[in-house]
Design a protein that fits this description.
ten-stranded mixed β-sheet; alpha/beta; Rossmann fold; elongated; 12 helices; disordered C terminus
């Protein structure tokens, strides 16, 4: 059984002005999707609560003007942990932006989006700039079934806005010459015609997208995954990029493979949607013939 689509939006801020674009985007998206909103403010250790309260009050006023109901909560603590605690309690689409960490802290620990991705099991929309339109969506399908929940969340947004959707699959060059890899490398331009796990899962993804009645286009490229996604994102002028979470992978894959989602999120200015796949869906895809 597939994961349910989000019922509410969770808009998050720690009072830093870098989070304002995410709040603005959340207000706009609430109006477009007609979803209720939970405003979550986090007062971090050693910080004054006033900036948090001010941004929450400003956002609540905008939501009221839009005609969207909201609940407001303020909690002390570490932002990624507090966000994860609330987000994992319900069917939320969590909208969050950069938390304004110092350069040395980002250098040591990486951006906060990496820790948030690791802890959340529900959809995340990472917003660095309030790009208040949704005409073109790029969904990056890894081909192994890990992006199904992300695709479902993105298609719901596309249905609400009438956005055009492009499915992108990138075939990476491989060094191990096992049969499936050889077949994919030899037929990467016609991967949908192969009986590989990647081909089958891309067909499922395309069928799911087409069943919504939206305009869908499939693109297959070959090369470095991050480079190809960034190239397509920049050339296609997309308003939102969807990627599966690396933490959807079984076993130790997410420990030794590049964190494509985080790398793309840190490189692009447009909103990034990601979802950590449920174990039930992963098991279903792993067992598929």
């Amino acid at each position: 059984m597939m994961a349910e689509t989000p019922a509410k939006l969770l808009l998050c801020t720690n009072g830093n002005l870098h989070t304002r674009p995410a709040l603005e985007y959340g207000v706009w998206l609430a109006g477009v999707t007609n979803k209720d909103v939970h405003l979550l403010g986090i007062v971090e250790t050693g910080h004054d609560s006033s900036p948090v309260e001010d941004l929450l009050a400003e956002t609540a006023d905008r939501l009221e003007q839009t005609g969207v109901s909201c609940l407001t909560t303020i909690e002390p603590g570490n932002s990624p942990q507090v966000i994860a605690r609330y987000a994992n309690q319900g069917r939320y689409l969590t909208i969050v932006g950069p938390l304004g960490r110092s350069a040395w802290r980002r250098a040591v620990h990486g951006r906060s989006i990496r820790r948030i991705m690791q802890q959340l099991t529900s959809p995340i929309l990472y917003v660095r700039n309030a790009q208040l339109k949704l005409d073109r969506i790029l969904l990056c399908m890894g081909g192994l079934g890990y992006a199904v929940s992300m695709e479902m969340a993105a298609l719901e947004l596309a249905k609400s806005t009438g956005a055009r959707v492009v499915l992108l699959h990138v075939v990476e060059p491989v060094t191990l010459a096992y049969p499936t890899a050889i077949e994919i490398q030899s037929h990467w331009q016609t991967i949908l015609e192969t009986n590989t796990p990647q081909g089958r899962n891309l067909k499922r993804a395309l069928d799911l997208a087409q069943a919504t009645g939206l305009q869908i286009e499939l693109k297959v490229q070959r090369g470095n995954v991050v480079h190809e996604i960034l190239a397509e994102a920049q050339q296609g002028n997309y308003d939102l990029i969807g990627l599966g979470s690396p933490y959807s992978a079984h076993s130790l894959r997410h420990l030794y493979l590049p964190n494509v989602t985080a790398d793309v999120a840190e490189a692009l200015e447009c909103p990034i949607l990601t979802v950590r796949q449920s174990e039930a869906v992963l098991d279903r895809n792993a067992d598929s013939p």
